[in-house]
Specification:
single chain, 556 residues, ten-stranded antiparallel beta sheet, six-stranded antiparallel beta sheet, 29% helix
Length: 556
């Protein structure tokens, strides 16, 4: 292959190959220097047109080196352009960004993405591509980074660099036809790219031809644009025989800011964010980079707490409390997935709060206040703000101290240890046996006497001020009990309804079941501490179970 020769030899051989197409077998042997073809015989017979053909062929053969000379590509760590290697999708996309003049912008920011298959060196480019809506990959998690790029795929990128819009101006499967139509290439070139191996060499050829092609609805070439944005110089363009000379006007970008809409400064600190529409809480699925931000019931965990870090203009970042090196991040486009990403200064992580009602806020992207954090199918996404309750949030100072509650409960369990008899005449707050014991534990835990019925409802309005119902279920299947128990906290009351009534105090849970503290289960008025599997009550003859939670639960 000619691509293993040094640069000047590659140019010579390419020129020989091109020249041989126009000369007879008996033509004299020519002498070559590094950049030109010289022959008295050749000079006598060549026409202006044939000279141009030779020049064009030479330019295409050396297109990769032209792009390198222009500073648009650099090759591998040793500068090798690897022209005979099949190009990958991530390599092709990087060259596409170079044609846009945006490689530097991509490397300066740290934009988020959810692809799992991209190389480390491509990380910034992947995030920038999603941020700019240039690519969405095969799916949210797969870019196809190391898949071979096809001629149609890369030409689609080239056309977009020239200002043509996918699906409006062309279909990606017909991108080569569009390229022929606008004069970027000839039909024979398009057919050659399709029929033969599509390597990095061919990617360079397409890119070089694009530089000499006019932008959509313009007399300016892509080279004119890159000169205008300061990506290449006129001197470099001249040295590489590029077509330019028409003034290109750089479009002015609109700089959105938090000042475009009235917003409220939120207090610094760590909070739970309760969604008004779903009644669920914003939750980091893990404290790792790229973890999704979803919704879940209240578990009083660090995964559901976000630290508000305010900026001077009233905007803020939401940091993951359990890993403050990560922030809530969303590329500024409608429908973007919200994830955790390394803390940085990009617009993807800067939000404002707009008070929609007393204590209820929409959380908007500061750079584009028309989009807001939105609850959608147990996930959080960035969506155009419509005023829906799923786009409104309440802040809760999550100061409930489950560790303190567990310690208090443990001390009560030393007073009434497992196996202790309460006596046949035992009662508390108007109830005996298991309910009386539950009411006494509640009193010892929270210093207040609360009364409730078997269905969990308060006996009076004053009782209703002492606790809240955080979960209810009429099903005793393993999954429904596990879901209900996930909402319970140490010291909460679990109240089973008639006909088989029973009162228990929740202690803790694990993957197989949960531990309760109660009386009258193992014997009349006898205290017990028991671990119950989630499926143990599958046939329980009771009309429901309720979780009761004290309104003055211990706080930090």
């Amino acid at each position: 292959m000619i691509f293993h020769l040094p640069k000047y030899k590659k140019r010579i051989v390419s020129a020989v190959l091109c020249s041989s197409l126009m000369l007879s077998a008996g033509a004299p042997v020519f002498a070559f220097d590094e950049n030109t073809i010289t022959s008295s015989v050749f000079e006598e017979v060549q026409t202006k047109e044939s000279a141009q053909v030779v020049q064009n062929a030479m330019s295409l053969a050396n297109s990769g080196y032209a792009l390198k000379s222009l500073g648009l590509i650099v090759g591998d760590t040793s500068g090798d352009l690897m022209l005979d290697k099949v190009g990958t999708r991530q390599e092709a996309f990087t060259i596409f960004l170079a044609l846009l003049g945006e490689q530097e912008a991509a490397t300066q920011g740290k934009y988020s993405y959810t692809f799992r298959d991209v190389s480390a060196w491509f990380s910034n480019f992947a995030g920038y591509g999603v941020y700019k809506h240039y690519t969405s990959g095969y799916s949210e998690t797969t870019f196809g980074a190391n898949d071979a790029v096809t001629p149609a795929q890369y030409m689609s990128f080239v056309l977009r660099a020239l200002g043509y819009e996918y699906s409006t101006d062309f279909k990606w499967s017909e991108s080569l036809n569009k390229a022929v139509e606008i004069g970027l290439c000839t039909q024979s070139q398009a057919e050659s790219w399709t029929k033969n191996a599509f390597r990095r060499q061919e990617i360079m050829e397409m890119s070089y031809l694009a530089l000499n092609t006019k932008m959509k609805n313009s007399n300016c070439t892509l080279t004119d644009k890159l000169i205008a944005v300061g990506r290449i110089t006129p001197e470099a363009a001249t040295a590489e025989n590029l077509t330019f000379g028409t003034t290109y006007t750089v479009a002015q970008t609109v700089n959105g800011s938090a000042g475009t809409i009235a917003h409220s400064a939120l207090p610094s600190g760590s909070y739970e964010l309760h969604n008004v529409g779903t009644k669920l809480i914003m939750t980091a699925n893990s404290a790792a980079k790229q973890a999704n931000i979803g919704l879940a019931s209240d578990t009083n965990s660090a995964a559901q707490q976000f630290t508000i870090q305010n900026n001077s203009d009233g905007s803020f970042q939401l940091l993951c409390k359990s890993n403050t090196s990560l922030a809530v991040d969303a590329n500024p486009t409608d429908g973007a997935e919200v994830i955790l990403w390394n803390v940085n200064s990009t617009e993807c992580q800067t939000f404002i709060a707009v008070e929609e009602a007393n204590g209820v806020y929409s959380i908007r992207l500061a750079s584009n206040t028309s989009v807001a954090l939105t609850a959608e199918s147990n996930n959080v996404r960035l969506k155009g703000y419509s005023g829906a309750s799923s786009q409104q949030w309440k802040l809760s100072d999550n100061s409930e101290d489950t560790a303190a509650a567990s310690a208090k409960l443990a001390s009560i369990m030393t007073v009434y240890p497992s196996g202790k008899s309460l006596g046949s005449s035992y009662s508390f707050a108007g109830a005996s046996q298991c309910m009386g014991f539950g009411r006494e534990v509640f009193y010892r835990m929270y210093g207040q006497t609360a009364r409730w019925s078997y269905d969990g409802s308060p006996k009076s309005s004053s009782d209703g001020k002492l606790y809240t119902i955080t979960a209810k279920s009429s099903s005793y299947s393993s999954s429904s009990i596990k879901s209900l128990i996930s909402k319970a906290k140490p010291g909460d009351i679990l109240q089973m309804n008639s006909p088989k009534m029973h009162t228990m105090v929740f202690v803790s849970s694990d993957s197989t079941g949960f531990t309760v503290y109660d009386a009258n289960w193992t014997g009349p008025n006898k205290v017990s501490v028991r671990h119950v599997s989630y499926g143990a009550w599958a046939g329980r003859n009771s009309s429901g179970i309720t979780v009761l939670h004290a309104t003055n639960y211990p706080t930090t």
